[in-house]
Specification:
Blueprint: H1 2-20, E1 36-43, E2 48-51, E3 57-62, E4 67-74, E5 81-87, E6 93-110, H2 118-121, E7 122-140
Parallel strand pairs: 1-7
Antiparallel strand pairs: 2-5, 3-6, 4-5, 6-7
Length: about 140
């Protein structure tokens, strides 16, 4: 009978220790990101250029409607990412394009715990953070 009590106490104590040595993971907690809206104004037949501040992969999610050129590329002078827009010949009015910027994010989850082993206390994970930019372009004469 005494061995049964000792075994139950040992099991209870080891569970208590294992729970108190771990920290909850912060993985999965994501702060909401508001989309950026840029209001741009250019003259007919002129080019608009946006330098992308954050390095990553830039894609056009919603293409402009009235364009001769609407594309992402790399600036030849400094290697930065850019978006260029040139309206259709002699077009005046409103146009809109939506860009996405996908950035690789590496996170380190320090789970803490009682172990002194680095491999057991840390995990590394990668994910993508995508932001959106809406460019509203007014083209006038």
């Amino acid at each position: 009978m005494r061995n049964l009590h000792t075994a139950a106490f040992t099991l209870l104590f080891s569970n208590l220790i294992s729970f108190s040595c771990s920290k909850p993971s912060t993985q999965g907690l994501v702060a909401p990101i508001s989309p950026t809206v840029i209001n741009a104004a250019i003259s007919a037949n002129q080019t608009y250029q946006l330098n992308v501040a954050n390095p990553g992969t830039v894609n056009i999610e919603k293409q402009a409607s009235h364009y001769k050129i609407s594309a992402t590329s790399t600036d030849e002078k400094n290697g930065s990412l850019i978006y260029q827009y040139l309206p259709s010949k002699d077009f005046t009015g409103q146009d809109e394009v939506i860009l996405s910027n996908k950035i690789l994010v590496t996170s380190y989850d320090n789970r803490g715990g009682c172990s002194s082993s680095y491999a057991n206390d840390h995990t590394v994970s990668t994910s993508y953070n995508t932001t959106y930019t809406t460019i509203k372009i007014t083209i006038s004469k």
